[in-house]
Amino acid sequence: MTSRQRGKLVDEILHYRDGQLLILLPLTLMKHSIDEYPAPYLMIQNYVSTHPENLCLRMTISE
Questions:
Q1: For residue 63, with 0-12 CB atoms within 10 Å meaning exposed, 13-18 middle and 19 or more buried, which class applies?
Q2: Where are the domains of the chain?
């Protein structure tokens, strides 16, 4: 992962933390990074792929 890509991911995670984004964007960036730079440890993490995508559980904001 380049430093630019890493910086973008960190920015999106911070925006999510601050409540400015849904979790979907940081997770999508992480998935793309894992696809581009495979790391077996990351590929088996449940957090990256917790729910069937067709349920759209990451599309809602809960307070």
A1: exposed
A2: 3-59
